[in-house]
Specification:
With 183 residues, this protein is of the alpha+beta class. The chain has a single domain (2-181), classed as endopeptidase domain like (from Nostoc punctiforme) (endopeptidase fold (from Nostoc punctiforme)). The protein has six helices and ten strands. The strands form three sheets. A six-stranded antiparallel sheet has the order 5-10-6-7-8-9. The chain has a two-stranded antiparallel ribbon with strand order 1-2. Strands 3-4 form a two-stranded antiparallel sheet. Helix 1 (2-16) runs antiparallel to helix 2 and helix 3 packs across helix 4. The longest helix is centred in the N-terminal third of the chain and has 15 residues, at 2-16. The radius of gyration is 15 Å and the shape is globular. The two termini are 19 Å apart.
Length: 183
């Protein structure tokens, strides 16, 4: 099952190479990314471990979502974890922490927890959703949000701050890699 998920993740990664890459809202040349590079990125990511268990206790996804929604409108800043400003993984980190659930601080490491979900139609409220190539970095996973249901997720946009966005939004849809179910 583990190898099957890695194989599917590799296929998704290769497919994503045919869409443009970006840094925030400024396109990055897609010529920089080849199928071999994406495969290597995915292999490197998977070697670091995936589908780890997250101790959520008896907490429910709605509590995490309710906490995240308290930050709606908070502006974006890299490294932020307060009402003053947040980044994407700061929002998930603080939303879980305020509910006494410990998760890593960055999106790349957060993506290692929970059952992988590749089919967007199988996402449930409270699943984490992960994206790649949302800005220029060496990390494979560059963005995270919390799925709200009905094709929406809450996250931190570099232009709008904490906001709700459709997963089918072309910008995010082409960068979606997978979701994880941690509850």
């Amino acid at each position: 099952m583990y190898l099957k998920r890695i194989f599917i993740l590799l296929i998704v990664t290769v497919a994503m190479l045919f869409v443009s890459c970006s840094k925030k809202q400024i396109p990055v040349s897609s010529k920089k990314y080849s199928a071999a590079a994406a495969s290597a990125e995915m292999q490197t990511f998977a070697k670091g471990g995936i589908e780890r268990d997250l101790k959520t206790g008896r907490k429910k996804p709605k509590k995490i979502i309710k906490t995240a929604e308290k930050y709606l409108g908070t502006p974006h800043c890299m490294g932020g974890t307060t009402k003053k400003c947040l980044d994407c993984s700061g929002l998930t980190y603080i939303s879980f922490a305020k509910n006494k659930i410990e998760i890593p601080r960055n999106s790349q490491e957060q993506a290692r927890y929970g059952q992988l979900i590749f089919d967007r139609n199988e996402l449930k409220r409270g699943d984490l959703v992960f994206f790649t190539k949302s800005y220029k970095t060496h990390d494979y996973i560059t963005h995270v949000g919390i799925y709200l249901g009905n094709d929406k997720f809450i996250h931190v946009s570099s232009t709008s701050g904490v906001t709700k966005t459709l997963l089918s939004n072309p910008w995010w849809s082409e960068r979606f890699v997978f979701g994880t179910r941690v509850f």
